[in-house]
Structure of 2,5-didehydrogluconate reductase:
Amino acid sequence: MIELNNGVQIPSLGFGVFQITDLKECEESVLTALKTGYRLIDTAAGYENESAVGNAIKKSGLARKDIFISSKVWITHDGYQETMNSFEQTLEKLQTDYLDLYLVHMPYGDYHGSWRAMEELYKAGKIKAIGVCNFLEDRLTDLILTHEIVPAINQMETHPFNQQKELQQVMNKNNIKLMAWGPFAEGQNNIFTNEVLVEIGKKYDKTAAQVILRWLREEDIIAIPKSVHLNRIKENFAIDDFSLSLADKEKISQLDQAKPLILNITALNEVYRLHGLS
């Protein structure tokens, strides 16, 4: 477990459902994850699968208090009232009366209005913690300086090839935890057969994927890997029985290219700015 800046405890390893568009497959995958032992489930209004997540949680038979549910407000629902409306829809689809974590999905539109709504929902006890996604240093700092509540989490593309070292310096000063989306870089740069990661894994009889997830845990970074395959769901969860050496972590650190492979937020910010949406 990792403690957030408001004292809330969040599992360090969760299960993500981005791009699982088949609702039956999503429901089955989440149910498998919960049976395997995952207790953090990360979804979003923009994924259009919150209802499947809610169904899986209900079918699991687990108590609501034992599951940490994270969701996000999409950019089409930016602003105070739209966020309020979207939040109620999210609760209905997830079949719950509160969220453990609610995030601003993208730093565009009236995200300040969205944050005001989230602060209000947090104070009302409807959300245990609030945070953001895809916020680089400038917008994250702006949000911190212009509002009462500091984000508890910033969810970013984070993997061995993009380790977010500069961003983490700003986040650490404000005790904001990093949550890694795309921890496997969506398979890019042959990450699963990377020589460094494979060689480290051989020492512990682990896969490159397991090495990545263990590295993130030891770096105090929350990870939310996604899979629809039973063996991979179980494999990703099996990272408690080994630890990386300092030499291992130094080798992984040297893989950092300090640039995104999946989503270039800096370039996207410029596109939105030119269209008057940023």
